[in-house]
């Protein structure tokens, strides 16, 4: 199911942006870390289905929801998501074929006015004396 959630094209864009995993210790290496693609599949599963992290089915996704959440936290701290966003924007926006038009935006600091302005203040109150 990992390949269903994380397509090769998506993985090809994200993989270069991920930080290097630290080397395992030699004496007490602990468990083998879950592959990054599997952890990304867990993150995508939560985003698509909206389930809680604890409800991620580890048999079908390949990792627990807590593992996916920890990897999401690590990648967020490493700045992966802003870099991915910038990479996708530069890929999607070809600035050679774009035009920017700001004629419909109001000039905030003065600017030329068209026609006379209407007085919008309240009328003065008549004197009570």
TrEMBL record:
<dbReference type="InterPro" id="IPR025161">
    <property type="entry name" value="IS402-like_dom"/>
</dbReference>
<dbReference type="Pfam" id="PF13340">
    <property type="entry name" value="DUF4096"/>
</dbReference>
<feature type="domain" description="Insertion element IS402-like">
    <location>
        <begin position="8"/>
        <end position="85"/>
    </location>
</feature>
<protein>
    <recommendedName>
        <fullName>Insertion element IS402-like domain-containing protein</fullName>
    </recommendedName>
</protein>
<dbReference type="InterPro" id="IPR052909">
    <property type="entry name" value="Transposase_6_like"/>
</dbReference>
């Amino acid at each position: 199911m990992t390949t269903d959630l994380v397509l090769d094209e998506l993985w090809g864009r994200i993989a270069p942006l991920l930080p290097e995993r630290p080397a395992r210790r030699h004496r007490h290496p602990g468990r083998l870390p879950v592959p990054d693609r599997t952890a990304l599949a867990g993150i995508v599963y939560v985003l698509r289905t909206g389930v809680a992290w604890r409800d991620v089915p580890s048999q079908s996704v390949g990792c627990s929801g807590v593992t996916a959440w920890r990897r999401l936290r690590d990648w967020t701290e490493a700045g992966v998501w802003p870099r991915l966003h910038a990479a996708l924007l530069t890929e999607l926006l070809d600035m050679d074929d774009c035009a920017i038009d700001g004629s419909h935006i109001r000039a905030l600091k003065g600017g030329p006015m068209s026609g006379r302005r209407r007085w919008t203040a309240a009328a003065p109150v008549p004197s009570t004396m």
